[in-house]
Amino acid sequence: MRFVLLFAIGLVGQATPTGLPVIEYHHVGPVAIGADAQTIYEAFPANSRELVDLGYEGMLSPALLLRFVGASQRDGVVAELVAGRKGLVVWRIQIRDPSFRTLNGIGVGSTVGQLRAAYHLDSVRSGEGNVVIRVEQLSASFVLDQSAQGGVQLRTLGTPDAVPDSVKIKSVLLTK
Questions:
Q1: In terms of DSSP H, where are the helices of 11-161?
Q2: Where are the domains of the chain?
Q3: Residue 72 to residue 100: CA distance in whole angstroms
Q4: What 8-state DSSP symbol labels residue 22?
Q5: pLDDT digits (tens, 9 = 90+) for 5-63
Q6: DSSP label at residue 161
Q7: Beta strand 123-127 pairing with 87-95
Q8: What distance in Å separates the CA atoms of residue 143 and residue 116, rounded to the nearest whole number?
Q9: Element (H or E) spanning 127, and its range?
Q10: What pTM does this model have?
């Protein structure tokens, strides 16, 4: 039964040339917003999953750290969990591993210029110490690397057009 489940889950969505799932609207491979956490947990071998508390704002914040075969990081995909009607469900998905890409080739390490060329940029937002560019087409927030901006304060920029093309993406957050 487990083999059948893993095989079926592996067919969900597109794949990159490396065989890793593509970052898509509300999911990356079998990890989807609204998915049952237990099902996701069981779909990954024990050495490729870890249930953790992210401790956001001092509160219990359960998540699954997931590693896909062929990915470069153990915690490359983080499925953040919340209580649903029938137990824990995935409510946000954080992609930290540069091996994962959108269909248009955008992911961790891409620049804002590359993101701008591939998608319509809807807004710039800041919160919890991060600055993000929102792409509604993917229901995704691209978290920006603020460390090498030569004094430019990204959180003060009001529109995506004001963000320099050279700014790099440090993670992708899929939300509802």
A1: 37-43, 112-118
A2: 2-95, 112-174
A3: 10
A4: P
A5: 333 334 356 766 668 999 999 999 999 999 999 999 999 999 999 999 999 888 999 99
A6: G
A7: unpaired
A8: 14
A9: strand 123-127
A10: 0.87
